[in-house]
Amino acid sequence: MRVFVTGATGFIGSAVARELIDAGHQVLGLARSDAAAKSLVEAGARVHRGSLEDLESVRSGAAAADGVIHTAFIHDFSNYGPAAEADRRAIETLGGTLAGSDRPLIVTSGTLLAQRQGSLATEEDAPKPNFPRKSEEAALALGARGVRASVLRLPPSVHGIGDHGFVPRLISIAREKGVSAFIGDGLNRWPAVHRLDAAHLYRLALEKNSVGARHHGVADEGVPTREIAEAIGRGLNVPVVSKSREEAADHFGWIAHFFGVDAPASSAQTQERLGWRPVQPGLKADLNAEHYFERTEDAVALHS
Questions:
Q1: 83: closest CA among 125, 51, 36, 49?
Q2: Distance CA 241, CA 182 (A)
Q3: What values do phi and psi take at 181, rounded to 5?
Q4: What is the rounded CA–CA span in Å between residue 114 and residue 28?
Q5: Model's pTM, two decimal places?
Q6: Has residue 195 got a pLDDT over 80?
Q7: Residues in contact with 100: Cβ distance below 8 Å, sequence separation at least 6, in sequence order
Q8: Are 215 and 151 in contact (CB under 8 A)?
Q9: 202 contact partners, CB below 8 Å, separation of at least 6
Q10: Which of 55, 111, 116, 253 is 20 to 30 A from residue 265's alpha carbon, by CA?
Q11: Is 222 exposed, middle or buried (0-12, 13-18, 19+ CB in 10 A)?
């Protein structure tokens, strides 16, 4: 199958591309720069130049493929509304191109968007209605147009070598402040998954194509944030402290809101439906690896 992958050079998308190629699929990767195009060629993928904002490039990429995996998102939390709107337009463009065919579309969302907070979120939970990101609503609405779309929700921590998401940000804050902190009692929980397990799930979702389904890419259902802070403290050899909710915003900045939520999630239905079994190290085991505690300049070189 020829698969058009948006975000194909990102942390998650590059693992998805590798998983697909190793399974015998052909990958057509969206690339907005020469560096991205070079990395795709080196991985054995074909290059499709464009970006999420260039909807014609999105349309033509989908038109040339037998299926689409949409992992790209503009991760600008200071400008989140426009980023979410760009994502919605891209999904609608992909769907419009695939409408009336049997070609699958897998759209990425997040478990934090599930309505249920403080108890185990499942695949049946609808997304929060007032949240700016409308990936799920846009994807599943395409079913009425004959699009074989489904949603894959990822947890807040997708970890592994090359991670530059929430956990590395927490490590940077701990290094800067000289302490590794959690909020309150630190019993609020974060779900997590290794990027290679997530990539395998994308392939299964594409190949088995459960139309209209929500899949959960969750291995660790809920790691207490205190334990994440403790692992960071050990890795950096700094004290581990609690911050009150009033202190959290000043200490953590924009990530305080995310690090303070209690949002465990289950993948039981996904595992049963698709036969997916996570086999990679969990988040706490991965935090014992040296790559998470390299200096910033080393991490930049790793991500480039």
A1: 51
A2: 7
A3: -115, 155
A4: 31
A5: 0.93
A6: yes
A7: 145, 146
A8: yes
A9: 16, 19, 69, 71, 106, 152, 217
A10: 253
A11: buried
Q: Are strands 240-243 and 46-49 parallel, antiparallel or unpaired?
A: unpaired
Q: Which two tokens stand for residue 33?
A: 């720069």
pLDDT band at 36 (very low <50, low <70, confident <90, very high): very high
Q: What is the DSSP letter of 279?
A: -
- CA-CA distance, 251 to 255, in Å (whole number)? 9
Q: Which residue, among 154, 230, 266, 229, has the nearest Cα to 199 in the 3D structure?
A: 154
Mean pLDDT of 255-271: 95
Amino acid at 196: L
pLDDT at 298 over 50: no
Rg (CA), the chain: 19
Strands 46-49 and 26-31: parallel
pLDDT for the residue numbered 303? 34
Quickly state the pLDDT bin for 278 (edges 50, 70, 90): very high
- Token pair, residue 26, equals 């052909």
The candidate with the shortest Cα–Cα distance to 25, out of 4, 2, 45, is 2
Of the candidates 227, 249, 244, 245, which has an alpha carbon nearest to the alpha carbon of residue 173? Answer: 249
pLDDT tens sequence across 93-144: 999 999 988 899 999 999 988 867 678 999 999 888 777 788 888 888 898 8
How far apart CA 280 and CA 284 sit, in angstroms, is: 12
Determine the Cα–Cα distance for residues 269 and 246; give it in Å rounded to an integer. 38
pLDDT at 77: 65
CA distance linking residue 139 with residue 18, whole number of Å: 24
Q: What are the helix (H) ranges across the chain? A: 11-22, 34-43, 55-63, 80-98, 135-141, 166-177, 195-208, 225-236, 245-252, 256-259, 268-274, 283-286, 296-303
